Amino acid sequence: MKTKNTIICLLFLFVTQVINAQNNADALISGLVDQIKSHKNVEMTFNYQISSQGEKVGNSEKGHAWLQGEAYKTEMTDQQTISDGKTIWTYFIDAEEVMVSNASEGTDNTPLKILTSLDENYVATLTGINAQGIATVELANPAGQYKRVTLKINTKKAELKSADIYFEDGNKFVIDVEEMKFDQELGDKFFTFDTKKHPNVDVIDMR
Known about the structure:
single chain
């Protein structure tokens, strides 16, 4: 009987810890998302790298991402993704080709867009907080484009430090945040693709 009671107590303690970790993780994600959404716009400078089966593929590259309401823009070495909230332009730089699609057909395909959808689409679990106050949060979304995301969050500032995004094929997209800027004055055409600046680009309209 004592053994059964002990097991029941341990099980209750375990469930309580899981619930508390879940609540803490949700609070961290909500704080992070609310902090981003409280600004007119956000710019993120980050370093990124692909790894396959634990092995790094290529050198670390620098990227930039901007978010303003439903509009966003991401610039990486070989690709740019731009959306004004209605249309998405995916520009493949080396191929000199831009694919145009409706924003309604898009997915959580940029670092900042992933962040602002975390509290809606992902189940979060807090796995630990180190001595510097950096929390590790695991996120899962079986129905999402990315099944699993691991975040490092500065709990004192509600700021993202890094994100590991896992693909179905076993590859991982690693992002280390270098700097965040807020409330900048961006031009009216900032979140559109200007074909006049790219006269040699082949435009493929998928709408």
